[in-house]
Design a protein that fits this description.
alpha+beta, Glutaredoxin, 10 helices, 24 strands
């Protein structure tokens, strides 16, 4: 029965009435549309990819640039070394197609075009749009001008070299350890200050300068007004000195030791007395403390004396300063001339009525002798 029913249904399905050509054409048309769409998509993606590749290649390509260096007509010894900056620039992603060095008299058109104020100058032309020039260059017209020219340099407006400083150091008599001004001078050199002239004067030979600038401490350092060309250093200098009416800079707050011209006394030369028990071989070495004072705290020591606690002098010092532990360390009142160091010392000792400082925290240095018990307190085994 089922087989007969299927045969009947197939008879009803007349294949002669189906237009296969029409269906074929429709299917072919749809396939063509799909093919065209795929080709378009492929072309579009390929074009975008090619553009991105071209863009990457162009960005990676070194910029074609021309370099122009302009120098003063006259010698500018000690002036800013523009050549160093040129060499640094060449290490970037650039291709230097031309490099020219001109004297100022040969480059008047460039000086005017780029409104140059300082020489030497460093100019770049060419594909500057490809450069990431940062703050070191300023875009002017169709080029770049290196703008971080530091003194000394030639000022086109003033027609002279600016930033060369004259330095006078006035040293006190009979104080070889009074080197504060010399250290400041060395720091100025390290900071890149250009020096026109340097003189060291003694107290007697600099009498007129001392009176002119009302100097009360020696050593002193006097820098000419050209120091004003160094903004950072100029501002820092104001915190340790003064700017005078003639533009000079006078260093007034030098590190000790120094000579107080109002009293004629040397300040900041420290005397250190060590009260020791020679029989205590395991007690800490007092030289360790002296090294801490000079090397770590910057205190200038004039004299160091070891005093045995059994001597008359030793007994008197123990009584005067109520010393309970040995070794004992007594520092003269000049230690107060070192505010930073003195603040550290206050935490491990005491300041006495006569201004002397007594170190009392012996435990921080090692083994010591307790005078009340007569025994050695061993905090560590001596090597």
């Amino acid at each position: 029965m089922v087989e007969e029913k299927i045969k009947l249904d197939l008879r009803k399905f007349n294949l002669d009435k189906i237009d296969f050509l029409k269906w074929f054409k429709t299917l072919a048309f749809l396939l063509l549309i799909l093919l065209i769409f795929n080709i378009y998509q492929t072309f579009t993606l390929s074009s975008s990819l090619i553009k991105e590749i071209d863009k990457s290649i162009e960005e990676a390509r070194p910029a074609d640039v021309e370099i122009l260096i302009i120098k003063p007509d006259k010698s500018c010894e000690g002036c800013f070394l523009i050549e160093n900056k040129v060499e640094e620039f060449k290490k970037l992603n650039v291709k230097v197609v031309k490099e020219v060095t001109l004297k100022a008299s040969e480059a008047s058109d460039y000086i005017s075009k780029y409104d140059l104020k300082k020489l030497p100058a460093f100019l770049i032309e060419g594909e500057i749009e490809k450069l990431d020039f940062g703050k070191s260059f300023t875009k002017v017209s169709n080029g770049l001008v290196f703008s971080d020219i530091l003194p000394p340099f030639f000022s086109i407006k003033e027609n002279r070299i600016v930033g060369k400083v004259s330095i006078n150091i006035i040293n006190p008599s009979n104080c070889d350890l009074c080197t504060g001004a010399q250290l400041v001078f060395e720091n100025l050199i390290r900071a890149g200050i250009g020096i026109e002239e340097y003189k060291e004067l003694n107290e007697v030979g600099a009498k007129n300068l001392i009176q002119k600038y009302k100097i009360t401490k020696l050593p002193a350092l006097i820098a000419s007004s050209e120091l004003s060309k160094y903004d950072g250093i100029k501002n820092a200098f104001k915190s340790v000195g003064s700017v005078e009416n003639d533009g000079s800079y006078v260093l007034r707050n030098v590190d000790p030791p120094y000579k107080d011209l109002t009293t004629g006394q040397l300040k900041g030369l420290v005397n250190v007395r060590y009260i020791v028990d020679e029989s205590c071989s395991s007690c800490y070495d007092v030289k360790t403390f002296g090294q801490i004072l000079s090397r770590n705290l910057g205190i200038k020591i004039k004299n160091e004396n070891n005093i045995d606690f059994k001597t008359t002098e030793g007994k008197k010092l123990i009584e005067t300063y109520a010393i309970k532990k040995l070794p004992a360390i007594i520092i003269s009142s000049d230690v107060k001339e070192y505010p930073g160091a003195f603040k550290v010392l206050e935490g491990v000792g005491s300041v006495e009525n006569d201004g002397s400082y007594v170190f009392r925290n012996n435990e921080v240095l090692g083994n010591y002798k307790d005078l009340e018990t007569g025994k050695v307190v061993e905090l560590q085994k001596k090597q």
